[in-house]
Automatic annotation (TrEMBL):
The keyword Secreted applies. One of its GO terms (cellular component) is extracellular region. It is found in: Secreted. Keywords: Disulfide bond, Secreted, Signal. GO terms for biological process: digestion; lipid catabolic process; response to food. This is Colipase-like protein 2. GO terms for molecular function: enzyme activator activity.
Amino acid sequence: MAAALALVAGVLALPQYKKDRCFHHSECYSGCCLMDLDSGGAFCAPRARITMICLPQTKGATNIICPCRMGLTCISKDLMCSRRCHMI
């Protein structure tokens, strides 16, 4: 039992990013390379979760907001609100 829990904990602790800094989405496991407006560089970031602000897709080499995780769709339910990740 303890070995099974250790295995699960090890899987959950796997790195989410190929590296800290990136120049393009393909360099990140998540597929999202975000601009760091403070330093002027970019870093790998996780995709947006449910109800988080999102972009429908990645465009160019870097973004300011990530697209949704698998199974979620980036839509706006209200014309006055920004797009968010929702299950459809």
